[in-house]
Design a protein that fits this description.
Blueprint: H1 2-12, H2 15-37, H3 39-48, H4 52-101, H5 104-109, H6 112-154, H7 156-162, H8 166-203, H9 205-210, H10 214-240, H11 242-266, H12 272-313, E1 334-342, E2 358-366, E3 370-374, H13 381-386, E4 396-401, E5 404-405, H14 411-415, E6 418-421, H15 432-436, H16 445-454, H17 458-461, H18 481-495, E7 499-503, H19 511-525, E8 529-533, E9 545-550, E10 553-558, H20 560-565, H21 569-579
Helix pairs in contact: 2-4, 2-6, 3-4, 3-12, 4-6, 6-7, 6-8, 6-12, 8-10, 8-12, 11-12, 16-18, 18-19
């Protein structure tokens, strides 16, 4: 019931259109009943009493009646489809907006394919429910009530016999509904798994082909696809039980009415017209009842899908602003990590707690200082850096800018003064211009070109036929790794933030690309405070200070020569890279 109420809140916005549609449904129901009732006078007055005047009335009246009914049917169907489309559009927008508010841990733990299933299959199922359920429930319900009214006027005894099967049908529909909703939810969840397999296969296509693992991927897909297919078959089997049971029950009732009514007509209990009008109404009631049974599966699937959408809307971000947050001023003196410890939340749902990524980090960074974070893999370098823009919050301790705990600041004022350039360059399937200006969409063409020139990107951009209006493909697949990296640096240059986070920005590049990127990085870091995450120690020699992490702790600090002289962790890393 809670799910129905939440869906109803979205429909409330379009109440005026719904009211018009409901009026049209009432008209269709009344005209359907009237059509069945006219069978009685048509038979009694025209075919038996030979009333020419009434025949003329029918000849002219019936087309008008069906034209009006057709117009009302169009109105109800069109308005309900429009309401369904707009309700789902509103839900889709709210879902997307909510997605922007969620913290990084959500995107770390959730498969993008499963999230996409909420936007596609689940919302499509909700749209079908919103568009069709009122038509079937209200129009067909009113039609059935009007027909029952006609039946009572013709013979109340026969009517009680005809509707005796309804309680049994209702109980059967309710019983099947629970099973259908469970199967529907399981099916939608498995569709998310299937989407996830497909999306992962597309993203890692080069790896699949390089390792000749096409057959293994086919087997993985086939397993997910087969399981999904079995769920659909179970859903279809349960759903299709409705129609045969309804038809058998209806046939038994109609057969009895035909026998008893025929006997009564023969004995003169009622007229031929009355009997055929009664049978026409009774047969017409069968269609709405069958629609109810058929609609049951669609409703249960839609409700199960709506529950999955609302589950996502109910996700609570872990990184939130405090009540009355402050607008933090741009960095003036220091960034400080004070007793910072951190561990990522468990993703497997087991009782065991994940390991600590950071333990008791104390670090002060002066404005304008370039700090290099080095250490073995898993030492906590990236974790240290991403706590600064509040992608996550420390488990204990705090991070401050000029003495202000960043958790008390607005996320916008904090993040607008931080630029991020990562090893895995994240670009949009948009134009070069859009990707460079992403952090500052109101930039002029001159500003965009100046940033590209500073990032050593203008030279390759102008070689494109469309220049800055060239679409670079999903994740920038149409350009090289070095070119993608230089666009990322241009984006950071245009944003012009006082603080930079560079996560191995020059790795995995050829010598020429690395030189161009390194030049761009040096221009980017000039007169800024920078946290540079580096695996190759040759890239950190120009840093003002090198901070060495190991097992989530700071084990050494100093410049290149000082750390080499200490013969510690940094010296071991340096010696190992020289050997390599």
């Amino acid at each position: 019931m809670k799910t129905y109420k939440r869906i109803a809140k979205y429909v409330d916005v379009y109440m005026s259109q719904l009211v018009v549609a409901l009026i049209a449904m009432c008209g269709v129901a009344a005209l359907t009943a009237l059509t069945m009732y006219l069978i009685k006078p048509a038979l009694d007055q025209v075919f038996i009493a030979h009333d020419y005047h009434f025949l003329n009335m029918l000849v002219w009246g019936l087309p008008v009646l069906f034209i009006v009914k057709g117009v009302l049917t169009f109105i109800q169907n069109y308005l309900m489809v429009c309401i369904g489309v707009h309700v789902v559009a509103d839900m889709r927008e709210e879902l997307f907006v909510h997605l922007q508010s969620l913290s990084m841990d959500f995107f770390t733990h959730r498969s993008s394919g499963k999230v996409m299933a909420r936007f596609t299959n689940d919302l499509n199922a909700v749209q079908q429910v919103v568009a069709k359920t009122p038509i079937y429930l209200i129009r067909d319900g009113l039609t059935a009530l009007c027909l029952v009214g006609v039946l009572f006027t013709l013979s109340w005894r026969f009517t009680l016999i005809a509707i005796a099967v309804l309680p049994v049908s209702a109980l059967m529909i309710m019983w099947l509904g629970k099973t259908l909703r469970h199967l529907g939810r399981s099916g939608q969840q498995q569709m998310g798994e299937l989407y996830s397999v497909i999306q992962e296969n597309i993203q890692v296509a080069p790896v699949v082909k390089a390792y000749s693992m096409e057959e293994a991927e086919i087997r993985r897909f086939r397993g997910a696809n087969d399981f999904f297919t079995k769920l659909l078959v179970r859903f279809a089997r349960t759903d299709t039980v409705n129609s045969p049971l309804m038809e058998v029950g209806g046939a038994l009732v109609i057969s009895f009415l035909l026998w008893k009514g025929g006997m009564d007509v023969i004995h003169g209990v009622w007229s031929t017209g009355s009997f055929f009008a009664f049978m026409g109404c009774a047969l017409s009631i069968y269609r709405p009842m069958k629609n109810f049974a058929d609609l049951n599966a669609q409703i249960q699937l839609g409700v199960a899908s709506a529950e999955r959408v609302f589950d996502l809307l109910d996700e609570i971000p872990t990184v939130v602003e405090v009540p009355s947050p402050v607008v933090i001023a741009p960095l003036k003196s220091t960034i400080s990590y004070e007793g910072v410890s951190f561990r990522y939340s468990s993703t497997d749902g087991k009782a065991s707690e994940p390991r600590w990524a950071l333990k008791g980090i104390d670090l002060k960074i002066r404005s304008g200082e370039i700090i290099a974070l080095v250490g073995p893999s898993g030492a906590g370098k990236t974790t240290t850096a991403i706590l600064l823009p509040r992608f996550y919050d420390p488990t204990t301790g705090r991070v401050c800018i000029d003495g202000t705990d960043i958790r008390t600041a607005t996320l916008a004022s904090l993040r607008e003064q931080i630029g991020l350039v990562t090893q895995e360059v994240l670009l949009f399937n948009e134009t070069v211009r859009y990707n460079i200006a992403f952090g500052k969409l109101n930039s002029t063409d001159a500003e965009i070109q100046a940033a590209a020139e500073a990032a050593n990107a203008h030279s390759f951009i102008k070689r494109f036929a469309k220049g800055y209006d060239t679409v670079i493909g999903e994740r920038g697949v149409r350009i090289s790794g070095g070119e993608r990296q230089r666009l990322s640096i241009a984006r950071a240059l245009l944003k012009n933030p006082p603080i930079l986070i560079l996560d191995e920005a020059t790795s995995s590049l050829d010598a020429e690309s690395e030189r161009l990127v390194q030049e761009a990085v040096e221009r980017l870091m000039a007169h800024r405070t920078a946290l540079v995450i580096a695996h190759r120690l040759a890239t950190v020699r120009k840093a003002d200070r090198i901070v060495v992490l190991d097992h989530g702790q700071i084990v050494e600090q100093g410049d290149h020569e000082t750390l080499l002289a200490q013969q510690g962790t940094y010296h071991k890393l340096h010696s190992l890279q020289i050997l390599q």
